[in-house]
# Entry
Amino acid sequence: MRRTIARKRDGAALDDAEWQAVVAGYMSDAIEEAQLAALFMACYFKGIDEPEAAALTRAMVESGETLAPPVANCVDKHSSGGVADTASLIVVPIAAACGIPVAKLSGRALGHTGGTLDKLEAIPGVRTDLSPEAFAEQVRTVGCAVAAQSARLVPADKRMYALRDRTSTVQSLGLVAASIVSKKIAAGAPSIVFDVKVGRGAFFKDLSEVEALSRTMVHIAESFGRRCAAVVTDMNEPLGPAIGTGLEAIEARDFLRNGRRDPRLLALCAILATKMLETAGFAGDAAGAIRHALDSGAAYEMLERMLAAQGAAPGALDALRPHARMLEVRANRSGFVATIDAPKLGLFARALTERFGGTAGVFVHKRIGDAVTAGDVLATVFGGESGEDVLAAYGLADSAPPPRPLVYFEIASEAGGGPEAAAGEPRSRLATR
Amino acid sequence: MRRTIARKRDGAALDDAEWQAVVAGYMSDAIEEAQLAALFMACYFKGIDEPEAAALTRAMVESGETLAPPVANCVDKHSSGGVADTASLIVVPIAAACGIPVAKLSGRALGHTGGTLDKLEAIPGVRTDLSPEAFAEQVRTVGCAVAAQSARLVPADKRMYALRDRTSTVQSLGLVAASIVSKKIAAGAPSIVFDVKVGRGAFFKDLSEVEALSRTMVHIAESFGRRCAAVVTDMNEPLGPAIGTGLEAIEARDFLRNGRRDPRLLALCAILATKMLETAGFAGDAAGAIRHALDSGAAYEMLERMLAAQGAAPGALDALRPHARMLEVRANRSGFVATIDAPKLGLFARALTERFGGTAGVFVHKRIGDAVTAGDVLATVFGGESGEDVLAAYGLADSAPPPRPLVYFEIASEAGGGPEAAAGEPRSRLATR
# Structure
């Protein structure tokens, strides 16, 4: 292992056998944590190239079980984490309503970012701890399922992530890519759509880093024969208006049912749902099918069926209401919204739900670029007793900021319809930091 | 600790309190080895500046006992490790014979480099495991002592070095400097001379790295109020002719007694002994005193007295003879000695002494730059059955290589007589690698 560490430290690419030995040795306690920590830090500085990331991913996948695809044409969807990112709760039932089964394993809230499992569990009765067998059966019979990662899949990831967390080596692109993709590979879906967030509310702030991360993720997934697409999207402000587990469940419900659709959230969901259909081989007019699933109420019904299958009490979704204590946060000057500190809002909403229950949180009315007059309501706090943190998260300026794209670029695997990258050639090596 | 790791990872200089917390936390098991390993790897890439190295050294020294100086004007001498480096066995008695007491704690062989303790123990009866009290008493009564580091001094160094060794983070300049100097500080001598080796037979190959290492070591020692000097010397070939624990003891004996003095070894010993006298405040003509100590036999007598005090059997040094099996290694072509692979010879000699006893080893007759005719004896192998490895260590060429200096430059602390650096301004920050 010393030699492996020294090779990475000196900038070499480790071969498949070395990555296998690292992961297998760590899981069998033949390699000590200190050695893996030193290797991770060397990876932080020297990077991991795409073949290395694929080899590491394979070694991680082989540390546990791998699920067979519940249905041949099913799709999985992943978000790298953001604030007010309600997209999964919306696009999963949309795709399923369009006839593309969705088999999605999700995570918990991490830091300031929300977790889809927590949002589902804000709905009374809903369980996410499905066994792999129950999960697959639900995908087959209902059309979609969103469940927690089983401990039987990629056990190496849990241990390695905890070690990276304790040793400040989380932010290493190749390690992040392997961690994300290994879980998707083990979960079995033959098609995968990655929503990779970039910006102050995401884990990565730098577009070129995220580009490299996305390309590596696509490369790894392809090396396992999966079809996939990655969409790099903006996370410099909350994606949707609702921040908080239960508030986001309400947002998804109303989005699918009532047609009250936040334009930014709608724009991203349309893109992601389209990618999911395309990647899974949907034949026909994807955009038309998605519109129909929304307008006909089929997507909403699919959400209800999925929740019911996962234990939701009858009428529970319908009955979900924001926390009764409401507090309006008003602009203390006129101007334009120049910035919104999404991590601050994410942490604030998380603290509120922990103190006041699942439907506490923040609802954001004014978004970046909006004109405001002093006294206008910027946001509503549900459950909390003070809006100071929310006001502090708003940066108001005299002029409107330059518009920022919602989607920076897309990458698709060859098998998924040819490369659609809008930002130059793929880079074979991750940027070193 | 995560924050400390992240700060170093991002290039910050850690403050005194952070280094204190790192070492104290590690020694109390409050900080896990994996975290320290990650920090060490970050140090490898980002470097440690001189104040940081001093703070780390202080924290390491405080992990154990610190000895009072046995005598007010005593001196210590350190070599960063090389092949055929018999200098300590020669300069310690010289300085003591000149009236400057020497209190030297030494180490074991490491990799291809020799260790003074091993060379002393090749003399029948000699013990190096003196208690701190016996060590100090011998310095006072005999004038010099060379003993093993007590486990009571700098216990943090032993643990930290072992961790660095397992995690391929040994070669980090600031960590090396702190490791070396912490032991010298704890050993108590108010004056210290560092012989810092550079070249293919040393641990560092790059002159600018060694310059930075030397300046940092001097800076650290100064921060503890010690007077010191560093001499950066060539280790691209064996320093003296003898390689092997017992052979080097014989070399030192004959050097001091018989006047058969290898010119290269003599040149370095004269410089080191002069530095030891000057740094310790010797008043008068140091060069003349050293010459007299050699020519009068006073230095040899001092060596005998020191060995006797450390348990040498009467006549043991005198009776020491090279291993009886002798094998001559002859040049297979004519030309000039262009290179000598010192690590190869060091490892070969070490293996011979392990198999065939303490006075096995290699005696090198031809040195870099020497002209040879095919059939000339290049070296003699004592104890071994084959000279192939030795022949392979010689690089013969058609022309003589350009001459290389024995001493690259010297650095002295202010208190030790003013800066004598011959290679530009001190650099305040270690080169990052």
In short: The mean pLDDT of chain B is 92. DSSP finds 17 helices and 13 strands in chain B. The domain at 322-397 of chain B is CATH 3.90.1170.30 (Aldehyde Oxidoreductase; domain 3). The longest helix of chain B spans residues 207-223.
